[in-house]
Amino acid sequence: MSDAIEDSGRTGDGTRAVRAGLPEPVKHEPTLPGPVFAAHFHLPGEVTGPYAYGRDDNPTWTLLERAIGELEAPGRDGVETLVFASGMAAISAVLFSQLRAGDAVVFPSDGYQVLPLVRAQLEAYGIEVRTAPTAGDAQLEVLDGARLLWIESPSNPGLDVCDIRRLVEAAHARGALVAVDNTLATPLGQRPLELGADFSVASGTKQLTGHGDVLLGYVAGRDSEAMAAVRRWRKIVGAISGPMEAWLAHRSIATLQLRVDRQNATALVVAEALRRRPEVTGLRYPGLPDDPSHKIAAQQMRRFGCVVSFTLPSRARAERFLEALRLVEDATSFGGVRSTAERRGRWGGDAVPEGFIRMSVGAEDPEDLVADVLRALDESAAA
After folding, report:
1. What ranges make up the beta strands (E) of the chain?
2. For the residues 78-103, what does the mean pLDDT come to?
3. How confident is the model at residue 2 (pLDDT cuts 50, 70, 90)?
4. Which pLDDT band, with edges at 50, 70 and 90, does 4 fall under?
């Protein structure tokens, strides 16, 4: 590992992202080696060394895992990172490796819309699932006796924020582990492990890779025994990333700081433009000084994310707005370099109004994007 990354606790985010996970330079070899496609490796005699079978490890994963670890916990030893086939594979690995029948887990009631499906499966295995909203640190109220606290901050899609350090300290005092879904923030926006969490979990499909062409997830953790259980779960279920996806993800991380800074700055500009529109209600963006989440977010986040949410007066108005947009794609997911937006209620899994819009701000020129959004609002006003 290079001196710059060994000293990564003091290097800037751009330098860290560009160099994260790179191997030592070898003459005539590429800076970032290409993907290793292998189901098995030469393994004569005794089983020694890191690579034996493609479901267990792969050199391309190793470099990516090192890169993500350097972003999640720069300058810290003892942090392990494991990549998965998707964000849900990573989430499932933590939950099903750490929980047993009779345990209790605390979820956010306003979290990712697949969590209700996860809840049903956990309950089928005899695990108690409790829920409380993210805002106001309400999960503290149902924490007693839990084995695991699952935090999503900022929450998706409502963008509420909780005091992660406060919840972590309370959970640890009660003997509970803490996992933080860091998808929306990315490691450049927030570092859950530095706030005391046991696991930082994320979908790398979103802003971490940022091009809308890779499905990926990861778990970073501080406790070797807990991470060994996560690794064992990955081996059992085979929820592994393909080498091409891992290589694309590592390549994309080099531009993470550039993309995040551009997208976050533009998200604030878009949010400020939206709050001047009378038909827009429930506007949320943690970077707005008057947002309900801003005070806590400013204490624990270094960047506020690229997602803006708001509500239009009706389902029909929201759909007309989305149809009128020219620079913003009507698509799910978030964090990509091309802006997307959707009427979130169409999925049926989020407790949001019919006219609720989740917008992911991309890397377009801010003035062009704002003009497109304002024009679409104007055009959609006519029934």
Report:
1. 80-84, 104-108, 128-132, 148-152, 177-181, 199-203, 217-221, 281-284, 307-311, 329-330, 340-343, 356-360
2. 98
3. very low
4. very low
pLDDT band for position 3 (cuts 50, 70, 90): very low
DSSP state of 122: H
AA letter at 158: G
CA atoms within 13 A on the CB side of 214: 29
- Non-local (6+) Cβ contacts of 47 within 8 A are none
Q: Which has the closest alpha carbon to 82: 96, 65, 60?
A: 65
- Greatest CA span in the chain, whole angstroms? 75
> Beta-carbon neighbour count of residue 127 at 10 Å?
20
In the numeric block, which tokens belong to residue 136? 């106001």
Residue whose C-alpha is closest to residue 308's, from 277, 273, 256, 279:
273
Q: What global pTM score does this model have?
A: 0.94
Task: Say how far apart CA 354 and CA 209 lie, in whole Å.
Answer: 30
Please tell me the number of Cα atoms within 13 Å of 4 on its side-chain side: 14
**Of 142, 146, 200, the residue nearest 174 (C-alpha):** 146
Identity (one letter) of the amino acid at 33? P
| pLDDT at 383 (0 to 100) | 66
C-alpha span between 169 and 248 (Å, rounded): 37
**Three-state secondary structure of 24-40:** CCCCCCCCCCCCCCCCE
Backbone angles phi, psi at 243, to 5 degrees: -60, -35
Please, which residues bridge with residue 151 across strands? 180
Question: Which three-class secondary structure state does DSSP give residue 345?
Answer: helix
Beta bridge partners of 104: 128
